[in-house]
Every structure is written in structure tokens, then in C-alpha cells.
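Q: What would this chain look like folded?
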Amino acid sequence: MRHGSLFSGIGGFDLAAQWMGWENVFHCEWNPFGQKVLHYYWPNAEQFTDITKSDFKKYHGTIDIISGGFPCQPYSMAGKRLGKEDDRHLWPEMLRVIREVQPTWVVGENVFGLVNWSGGLVFHEVQADLEAEGYEVQPYVLPACAVNAPHRRDRIWFVAHSNNNDGRNNIRTIHRQSTRFSEEGSFTNTKSIGQEYALENGELEGRRLRQSYKRNLWDSFPSVSPICIGDDGLSNRLDSITFPKWRAESIKAGGNAIVPQVAYQIFKSIQDYERLH
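A: My prediction, written as C-alpha cells:
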């Protein structure tokens, strides 16, 4: 499958796509540090910078999946929660790219605070906008601890499938698989970056996760990683940067990044669905 990412950061979605064996066709990131990381690992992908000034029409009909963690600061519990009044409210730009490219699949990610900001205004707007463009949408919450990261890091994920793609207009299979993943916990080792992260037989680990919930062992978990970037499923090498400027940027990038192992599970469900249809 051909994948393009928006608000790419240091490549969490791109890394998950690489694990899937997919082609990373393009990425889009305005931050110079993120650009350097993306270009280093995916030099053959086209690099866009400012999404508000980029035209993606040449990729119309040629991309299977677009992913993007559109900026979360306007809705984060840790911020001022200005929402649409924040100049980082860039969901409209992601929607424009989706219109221009018309991918078969869209995977979006944001903080859990999006669900209740202004009574769920933007949460529902994202779904309504995608449905208006001909997509069936399924949102759900998946935490980082479901892939064995030592923190909750609850995130809202939107998975959308085009109703115009060969008449296939039902993503309930994806929803069932993702819900099972969320409830049972498909575990991975986040310290073994670059290894295979799918567990074909996760029943035992799933039971262990449910038992942990019953004992309320997760209640005191922090919302973000307290130790190092490696706990977010990303390379520990970002923690060893000594240049003050880039050191600060690496810390910020790690905080903004998605956990790629979670995206990998979503991508795996999408590919399984494609194989069945």
C-alpha cells in the first residue's frame, strides 16, 4: 500500500507503515528537527513543509492511506484549550488534503481532550466532514499501555474508509478488531525498536491486561512517559543528543509523537480487511 503522512513529526506513522512493508510516498512537517529525522529515514519520500502552502493534487487517486496527528495543542488538557481560536487548529487543512488526494483510507489521531472540548464540537465535526467527503468513519480510544508502554497516553483515533472504493463501505470489521485490541491488549516490547510488533497469539497477554485492570494497577499510571523516548516506542538515540538546541527539540518531538506500535495495530487491521475484500 502507498502511504502519505501529514503533521508527520519524527515519523511515528511512517515508521508503522515501514513495519507493514508499505511505501512511504510523502510526509509533511514544518519543524526543522522533524524534517531532518524524516529525510534521514525516508529520503525517497517527497517532503512537504508548511501544509497551508502545499498542493497535493498530483497525488489524486494514487495514495491508499493518509495518516495524520493533526495538532493537539488546541484541545489538550495541558494547554489553554482555545480550540478553533488557536492558529494551530489545522484539521481544515488536513481535510483539504484528503479532498485533493482522495485516499481509500484515512487515519487521524488526537488527544482524548478532543472528545469533550466544547461539548465534542470538533470531535463530531471531524466525523461529519469525512462523511460529507464520502467516508464511513469509526472513532475509538486506544491507550499506549495497550502495547505495553508504561503510561496510559489515551488518544482518540479516527479510521475512515471511502464509500467510493469498489463499493466497499463497511469498516465495522476494523472497529471490532481495534476494540478487541483496546480491551484485551496486544502487547509488544517497546524497547525492541525495529522488530516485529504484531503478536499473533495475544490471548494470554490479553487476559493478563484485563486482570491488571481489575486490580486497578493502571489507576496511578502517568498520562505521558516519565522516563525516556524509548518508552513511547521510538528510538532511544533521540535521548542521547547533546547539542542544547536539538536536545530540546528531541524532547518536544518525543512528547508530540504518536506511539507507532498503536498505529501499527491499526494498519495491520486495515491490511487484514483489504485482504478479505
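The chain has one domain: 2-276.
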